[in-house]
Amino acid sequence: MAVSPPICDFGAPWHDFSLPGVDGTIWTLDDVKGQNGTLVMFICNHCPYVQSILDRVVRDAKEMQNAGIGVVAISANDVAEYPQDGPEEMRSEARRRGFTFPYLYDESQEVARSYGAECTPDFFGYNAEGQLNYRGRFDSSTRKAGPEDARKELLEAMLLIARTGTGPEDQIPSMGCSIKWKTA
């Protein structure tokens, strides 16, 4: 069942974290934040909504990074139920896709909860001051990739944030698989 997160809560603060990356490094928000903004995205390996855009995410992340925007991906799914979302598989996916950004594992799910992440993919775009300015979709893709010439909504928003500190007023929420929360 597809889930859509709430609309952007403009100005909401980002949340610090300390999470292991697939590269064996412990990463914090200070390590990943960019001079002109930061994109924190919650993704996973098994979700068809993520898989349909992942090559485009990698492509657009490079352009964001060139514009001084920090980019990080976090997977928070319960790997007992979804082993394909575990650290080894994450490492393989990052290598296979050529990630230029850290891919972190939130085993406790505390970081995903602090951000209010609801689905994969879920994008949180912050300005240089750490204020939320984008919580929309990547592009018009769904479980299947949209057209090659689909408007690059996330990239456009992040470049606007990098230039002006403010994201677009009109944002279409992301859509994806629910985060697979651990049962108590």
UniProtKB/TrEMBL annotation:
Pfam families xref list: AhpC-TSA (PF00578)
Domain Thioredoxin: from-to ranges: 8-160
What is the protein name given in its UniProt record?
A: Thioredoxin family protein
- SUPFAM superfamilies linked: Thioredoxin-like
Q: Name one GO molecular function term.
A: oxidoreductase activity
The UniProt transmembrane annotation reads none
Organism of origin is: Paracoccus caeni
